[in-house]
Write a structure and sequence with these properties.
The chain is mostly beta strands. The protein has strands spanning about 5, 10-15, 20-25, 30-40, 45-50, 60, 70-75, 80-85, 90-100, 110, 115-119.
């Protein structure tokens, strides 16, 4: 089992940068693929980025590709989302999630951290 706590959200101007962090607890963190998702007001939750348990493979939503970077540190049990060139469309509650390798679903979620982009 994994517990996830996000941090780093806040208010940022359009065009600016922000780094989100996700702290994980649990002994088997390195056996989880990790992802970031977001949910804007009135919209469904959507996938943002993911990194494999080996840190060898990353995947991004088209809307954030080339602007956001996901990374993980298995020693520190941390996952990061570096956001650059943000736009007002990036305003959302951002969630960290964990997918145990081989299960195909994200079973563990954090509480989320709010990102608000001002124009």
């Amino acid at each position: 089992q994994v517990q996830l706590v996000e941090s780093g959200g806040g208010l940022v101007q359009a065009g600016g940068s922000l780094r989100l962090s996700c702290a994980a607890s649990g002994r088997t963190f390195s056996r989880y693929n990790m992802g970031w998702f977001r949910q804007a007001p009135g919209k469904e939750r959507e996938f943002v980025a993911a990194v494999s348990w080996t840190d060898a493979i990353t995947n991004y939503a088209d809307s954030v590709k080339s602007r956001f970077t996901i990374a993980r540190d298995n020693v520190k049990k941390m996952v990061y989302l570096q956001m650059a060139g943000v736009t007002v469309e990036d305003t959302a509650l951002y969630y960290c999630a964990a997918n145990l390798v081989g299960t195909g679903t994200y079973d563990y979620w954090g509480q989320g951290t709010q990102v608000t982009v001002s124009s």
